[in-house]
Amino acid sequence: MTVISDRPMAAAISTHAWETEQSAAVGDQAREHTEAAHTPLSVLAAAGLLSCAALAAVCWMSGRVHADPTLQTVARFLHVAALVVGLGAVLAVGWFAVLWLQGRHRLADILNTACTLQVPIWLGLAGLVTTGLFLNPDLTSTLTQVTGGLVLAITLNGLYAHRLGPHLDRYRDQRVPRSLLVQSGVAATVSQFGW
What we know:
Blueprint: H1 8-37, H2 41-62, H3 69-101, H4 107-116, H5 118-132, H6 142-169, H7 178-194
């Protein structure tokens, strides 16, 4: 912005006041965005219950669905593809978190990355559950039970992480409170371990 004035000091003050107003407006918009992005706890609880019911339904149906060898081969391929998509997205978010802890990135970078990669993470998880239906899993096997438990854990943890997002967003350019940092670290650890 170029201001022509025979009084340079007045122009500088005017420009500074304009920039301050713009900065305040951007801050207000960010706060409104954070409040709008805050998903009510009741919605997340309902999503958690529906996720548990869906996983139980898939387990029940997997004992009744008998896929032929061709369908099983396709399901295995799609199962691995879903794992690559979901795990890759989770690892990317985790990598940005490590860089933030080292002071090489801002918290805003992690939050933007996590927001962007939410869709591939959830698609990967949904793909794993859906294709698992056609893989004739042995539900009495300890490995299958552990795998099912991990899928449930990362699903519920993902909803918990979604709840933490708006709280972290308030501290984009500030120091994050220790309690929120611990909660985020636990959620990240469960996610990395579960995937």
